[in-house]
Design brief:
Blueprint lengths: L2 H29 L2 H9 L3 H10 L2 H31 L3 H27 L1 H18 L1 H18 L9 H13 L5 H13 L9 E2 L5 E3 L4 H11 L3 E6 L1 E10 H4 E2 L2 E2 L4 H4 L4 E4 L4 H11 L3 E5 L5 E6 H9 L13 E3 L4 E5 L4 H7 L12 H9 L8 E4 L2 E8 L4 E8 L4 H10 L1
Parallel strand pairs: 2-3, 7-8
Antiparallel strand pairs: 1-9, 3-4, 5-6, 8-9, 10-11, 11-14, 12-13, 13-14
Amino acid sequence: MDSESLALSIALVILIGFSAYFSATETAFSSLSKIRIKNLAANGNRRAALTLELANNYDAVLSTLLIGNNIVNIAAASLATVIFVKYYGDVGVTLSTAVMTVLVLIFGEISPKSLAKESPDSFSMFSAPLLKIFTVIFTPLNYIFSQWKKLLAKIFKISGEHKMTSDELLVLFDEVAQEGGIDAEEGELLRSALEFTDTEAENILTPRIDIEAVPVDATKEQVAQKFTESRFSRILVYEENIDNIVGVIHLKDFYTENGITDKPIQEIMSQPTFVPKSIKISDLLRLLQKNKSHIAVVSDDYGGTFGIVSMEDILEELVGEIWDEHDEVIEPFTKLSDDTYKVVCNSDLESFYRFFNIQTESESATSINGWVMEQLGKIPNEGDHFEYENLLVTVTVTDSRRVLEIEVCVQQPTEEDTVQKTAHA
């Protein structure tokens, strides 16, 4: 091999190497984690800072990589043609095409992209300095192509705006949890925080029927008895009926160092905070903080009392159930046998759906009690039952006004059901 052919061969190897570089860098920058790169940059990593700068200008980076990759691939094909024609004559063109196709595919595309996909963050930081140089060199071409892109976007009416939706963010949380980046508890907390702003007060309130309250003319003994029976730290005060809440008595204001306070009820009670049932609990939390209150009265559409929401109710939406030493621990779902469960009906309907793997439907009810009444179309009696998807639901405990407990039997699909589903599919 003469010196000219040797030089061309060396140049060919270099060009294939650059082809591998451009291909791998494209894959790395399209797959890197901006969050990890940001953390590294914040800790003083200069390579990470440069990588983040380039990633934030991805259009210019992609244009640079495509221009560079096409230049080196075309140049490599041309050099290979010259070399093969020199040694093999007319058949050299065909041989050059076949050999370069295999070489570029293996060493210029598939292998480097596969390797870059395995560790995109580290490879992006490795390639960033040289990529920055190429980006500067190709600035004029990048500008021309950016204008061409804008023209195409106008012609085809393409919108470049894309904001991550809450559903996409939930999927991201699940992926990070599966990869081991966060544990299950952290993932659940993040999910609760994301759903926090969408939850309304009516979904977490204590219903009107369970409210502990005393009339404004109640005696001190009656108020003390209500505190003892309910074990609550705050009791509502109403005038005439529960729809006219006029105040809230705090336990620490009712009991002093010398026992029950001598002040009248009207002097120790604080003004209640009233909110509509449609208020978001994130807004409600800020309102309670502003009013220095721990409880809000939720009004219905007619101005009556629909229920109450406490600060604890709101926090439980974020961190889960909060128990203190006075709370009676009640499990909402208790397994009775392999396929039968006892369910306490003051739980929310969404948790019921999750527990029994039911696809959530647009039910108007938010509690299991309301859902059972909707399904039966009446105030249930003990022994009433109905079927819902693969569940047989039987009412077991009521108090004449509502359902307290139900028994749920998970029915296994029969062979006939399986045949029908298969035939329908």
